């Protein structure tokens, strides 16, 4: 990830945090958040059903993003989804128009004391309108039909005059629609406060558009001598997601994912073909001691060159992890709670006032933090700065009294290894699930200090440890280790530069099988609430998988700004 791409990802994260906060404040729904640039309500993705609410982060500014959030908030507040589904037509074209009209209806419900919201939405619709024309979609009759209907309905519902250039642009098409849409346009204006009665008139408008589209397609199909008219998919390119939140979850930056049919057909029951060859090992035992010492010297030298300010990092971590705790009592106080042992002094010395005690409160941390490093092949190129970053966090966390673990995950072989061979020998049954031998490595456990484990941590620099990655099982394994700890707060930070990848599993199932399992694991652990699961992307935005995540650039120096962002992530101010 280039520096500019990283800055763009961070900017987008910040915008989504602000927009999500606005959505939660407006709707009162604490479960609303963005993940992978999509809006979620808990673990259910909310589709963007209106064209002018689609945002392009590379072109649209914060005002556009805020307007989209305002529009979604109004949709959640003022639209009954059950009634909407009941009225929604099946024809795709009619449904697109109907969805647009319902969104415009709820945008008329902006409270009078929120003129800024009305301005945001008005500006956003006009911006979308210009983009529609600039895209060339109005050059075809179908695109012009959609554009005209959208503009006329917006003008009628908002009681706003269209700009003169737009009126000139749509004059001919609007003239041909007046006779058919006149009564319906009056109806949507009159009944915009009543969703059911409004829907009747919106359906009339949608049917008119649908009939015109079907008639033009039929005419184009009958005329063999002429080029067919443009496909409706082209004309409706700016009208969005037909499926109710079931489209592909395309990630951003380099993170792409989708739906696994194999995973869904198994009712989201993840399968493992065999665990016979799986292992959990102390990472230091995989490397010769002489090589460990050599790697340790390299790490120490590289860390010294970075000059990381550990005391400052520890203070910043303490600001988000420290909690007040009772640490003894102070007796002989003149106010507080009565000390029963001193009541006799009240009899012998009535003027005595030092009969009380107070709890002594000190700041401390009751927290266990586990760092889980993806040891797949592509991480090999980033492992030195990643190790330095992990060690710096561990040392700073230990300075404030937190327990720490450093874990890693890889596979025992490339392309499936012995597990894949066993599957082949068994007749290659369909849908075998995971087809590789996992290797979970412990570089530092929670009961060892960094000083005692520092040599074993250097095993991360051994290149042949890095093979393939099965992230979902590794996250589950790390969470179970944390749950065995006595601390009240448990945090897992997954450091990865890509999606789960195992060639044998992907070939025998489908490409998104491991992706879907990782999503299921993270969603389940987040829902249970016993472990906070965070994603730290190395040159990648991991938001399609992790609700709270941060994209980093390990090609840059490990500076104060990077660690401040990690502290904010731990404190819960990223991807809430």
How would you describe what is shown here?
By secondary structure, the chain is α/β, with parallel strands linked by helices. 49% of the residues lie in helices and 14% in strands. The protein contains 20 helices and 13 strands. It has helices at residues 3-27, 62-78, 81-87, 92-107, 115-134, 141-158, 164-190, 195-222, 232-235, 261-265, 289-306, 310-321, 343-348, 383-399, 417-425, 450-457, 471-483, 503-508, 513-528, 560-571, and strands spanning 32-35, 38-41, 44-45, 279-282, 323-333, 337-338, 356-364, 367-374, 403-411, 438-444, 489-496, 532-538, 548-552. The strands form three sheets. A seven-stranded mixed β-sheet has the order 4-10-9-8-11-12-13, with helices on both faces. Helix 14 (383-399) links the parallel strand 8 and strand 9. Helix 12 packs across helix 14. The longest helix is centred in the middle third of the chain and has 28 residues, at 195-222. The radius of gyration is 30 Å and the shape is globular. The relative contact order is 0.11.
